[in-house]
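Repro case for the chain-ordering regression, as requested:
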Amino acid sequence: MSETILDLQDVTLRFGGLVAVDGVSMDVRQGEIRALIGPNGAGKSTIFNLVTGVYRPNQGTIRFGERSLNGVPPHRLAGLGIARTFQNIRLFSSLSLMENVLIGAHSRGRSGLAGAVFRLPPFRQEEENLSLQAWEALAFMGLDQKAGELAKNLPYGEQRRLEIARALVSQPRLLLLDEPAAGMNPQEKSALMETIRRIRDTGITVFLIEHDMRVVMGISDRVAVLNYGKKIADGLPAEVREDAGVIEAYLGTGGKRERRRTRPVVALPQVALEGGAGHAGN
Ligand code: ADP
Ligand code: MG
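-- result from build under test --
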């Protein structure tokens, strides 16, 4: 059994009267594909937002390896080795694919503002390395042929792949994917499953939120299930699929539903494009 890379202990987050995440404990182990599922509004994306410092838990601890993530702001995450994609795609629509990926790469740059402004040699070297890494990330996602095209001209499924390329360019140890198959057709979903396996095979641990059960059950090593903010099941895909509480959560109320009892305290961008540098994420 491999070591724990991400560990949540008794994590709670409230939005006013709504307990979006309610005493959740779960771990992600080095090298696995770990899934988090649950009905709409169950608190899945909020877990990602807690891990990535968009929100601070009211209660509980989140550790990445030996390090506490409580209070670590989102812009520090890439440097620690954590990258994510968003449920609502966040790309710069009028920039090229290459530029969109480079934005992810720059968050990891080290030569600092002075180096960038005066174009000192370490900065130039870094620029070359970053361009190379961006090419590699695009190629890994099968998008290098389109590097110069504008993001807005990509079909939807490829926009989702571009988001993953941008996350990969920071060379994370842990990659969080929030509903990467949403809006994809069956062929794109199959290709995505293969891609996620290849990402894992390069040594990157994958933490996946996904609605499509074929995708989840097909690629995950372990699956945790949230319902109304609480973890109701956790185990192997086959175990979770048979769990009576899970079946009830998905089927008992007709599957999809909203749990919004309070107005959002933070305005979240709902548009599909633009706003790539924003933090609060859905
Ligand atoms: P999921 O990703 O499982 O569909 P979310 O984590 O996005 O669910 O949301 C969990 C609950 O928290 C929902 O009821 C949602 O409306 C609520 N919520 C999420 N973000 C906010 C916010 N910023 N302010 C108020 N309520 C929020
Ligand atoms: Mg969500």
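Ordering looks correct now. Residues 92-170 form one domain.
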